[in-house]
Amino acid sequence: MTDRSPWTPPPRSFADTTGRSIRIERGIDDRAALIGMYESYAPHHRAQGLPPVGRERIEDWLDTVAGGLNVVAWHGDRAVGHSALLGNDDDHELMIFIHQNYRLSGIGSRLIRSLLADGYAEGVETVWLCVRPSNTIAVSLYESVGFERSNETGSDLEMTLSLQE
Amino acid sequence: MRVLVGVGGTERSFAALEGTVERARQADDAVTVAIFDDPSATLTRGQVRDRVGTLLEDWDRQVEIRDVDGDPGSQLVEVAESGEFDQLVLGNGNRTPMGKIQLDSIAQFVLFNSQVTVKLVR
Fold it and tell me: What is the per-residue pLDDT for A1?
């Protein structure tokens, strides 16, 4: 029997639940388009200070995030979702942002699985994140890929996932 | 303005005090320091007092230093709301590598409950 990874990359092209053709690409190919997604990001969907407001701050922030492992969901030439892992050899922080017009359509689940599959292939061991526990949609997404609650302080929930068994 | 600065012994709390004093020199604010036990700080109260003393030594204004005991968040709010203060200053907030801002439970309690204006120094 061959060693089968639980983190097989999902298809990178698919139709979302409303029939839109979405493709997931590794890396940030069209940075301007991704900045555009964050510039039009709904303020009430922002949490914990992210995404930052204003082009300059978005650019600074993306400079940091680009140092990690990135996947972007595209609808045509429009960036509609972005997920990234950032960290050192054994401890990576995960983030995911889906544009408000593309939420609840199955994109987040594919995007995060793509990212974790890429992380697994790169030898990433532990992934953690922090989220508002009141953000139940995000928390269920994280739980659906295996994240477990590791620490809860005030309004922050920390969740952890081990990729390599 | 009468400013109460909560100092729990983290680097951020000392930075908040420094910034408050800098502003107070120009604006002629009255500054009171509330020393409390911050579980994320490693200094003893005595060490915190020493650092506060050093930060204040070249300022010719009288600064009252108070000890706050019990639950830090609720006690800070209580002191701030005693009627003697216009503003409560706290140094708090970490950024994760990805840039998410995390406030500890003391800062959250203060922000959610204080009737006095809170200034958060990150």
Answer: 40
For the beta sheet containing A69-75, the strands, ordered from the edge strand earlier in sequence to the opposite edge, are A13-15, A21-26, A69-75, A78-87, A91-98, A126-131, A156-162, A148-153
B2-95, which class in CATH?
Answer: alpha beta
Q: What is the structure's pLDDT at A36? A: 97
pLDDT along chain A (165 residues), means of 10: 65 95 96 98 91 96 97 98 89 96 96 96 94 92 96 84 87
Chain B interface includes A150 (CB < 8 A): no
Cβ neighbours of A94 in B, within 8 Å: 98
More confident residue, A27 or B104: A27
CATH number listed for the domain at residues A13-162: 3.40.630.30
Smallest CA–CA separation between B98 and chain A, in Å? 6
B92: which chain A residues are within 8 Å (Cβ-Cβ)? none
The count of other CB atoms within 10 Å of the CB of residue B112 is 12
B5 versus A6: the higher-pLDDT residue is: B5
Residue B117: helix, strand or coil by DSSP? strand
Q: How far is A45 from chain B (nearest CA, A)?
A: 14
Task: Give the nearest partner residue to A93 out of B98, B105, B109, using CB atoms.
Answer: B98
Contact of B61 with B29, CB cutoff 8 Å = no
Domain ranges of chain A: 13-162
> In angstroms, rounded to a whole number, what is the distance separating the alpha carbons of residues A82 and A93?
14
- Partner residue facing A49 (CB), from B100, B104, B109: B100
B99–A49 C-beta distance less than 8 A: yes
